[in-house]
Amino acid sequence: MGRNDSTSKLIDEVLRFGVTTAAVGGILVLPGLAVALEKPIAALFDRLDKRSRERELRRVLYYMKEQNYLSGDYLHGLQLTDKAKQRLKQRSAYEITPTERWDKRWRVIIYDIPEKHKASRDKLTHFLRLSGCYQLQRSTWITPFACRDVIETICAKLHVDEYISYFEALNLDNEQALLDHARARYPHTKF
């Protein structure tokens, strides 16, 4: 995952946490935010030490303020803007949602999109990568969570639905590597 992908994913994590905090009347403050997002930040920036991850969070928060996703100040707390809520709403419509408990089925997405649809193919690949899917081969992706509706919606929007195959599998040859990836990526799901 590249830096831009990690930054985008971290922005979404901050927004999700901000919506949860706002629901109970709170505001975002940096020390609490750093503690609450410790696991997602560690997963996104696994090669960085704790201090560097905190610096990365500050960089992302600064970027979010510049882009008008957050208002307020660091001392008294930050709040989500309408622009942030809109981004979160758009993202959740196209999101593979992790479940609390895995149903022991793998979802496999395979595509063979022609070169004339390269831009759409790149967007689909970017989405799958950001969604935490595991790339088994160049155009074969796997996730432990149900996502048929999301994949069909995205592929229809990109006009490449005829080039996509989606199926569920109970057993895969390299299942242990996939489970290790899934456990690291989704620490709140019981595998």
Q: Determine the fraction of residues in helical runs and give it as a percent range.
A: 40-55%
Radius of gyration: 18 Å
| Number of DSSP helical runs | 8
Shape: globular
Q: What labels would you give this structure?
A:
191 residues; 52% helix; 8 helices; four-stranded antiparallel beta sheet; alpha+beta; globular
Question: Could you describe the 3D structure shown?
Answer:
- The chain is of the alpha+beta class and 191 residues long.
- Helix content is 52%, strand content 15%.
- It is built from 8 helices and 6 strands; from the N terminus they run ααααββαβαββαβα.
- The strands form 2 sheets. Strands 4-5-3-6 form a 4-stranded antiparallel β-sheet, sandwiched between helices.
- The longest helix is centred in the N-terminal third of the chain and has 21 residues, at 3-23.
- The mean pLDDT is 83.
In brief, what are we looking at here?
This protein is an alpha+beta fold.
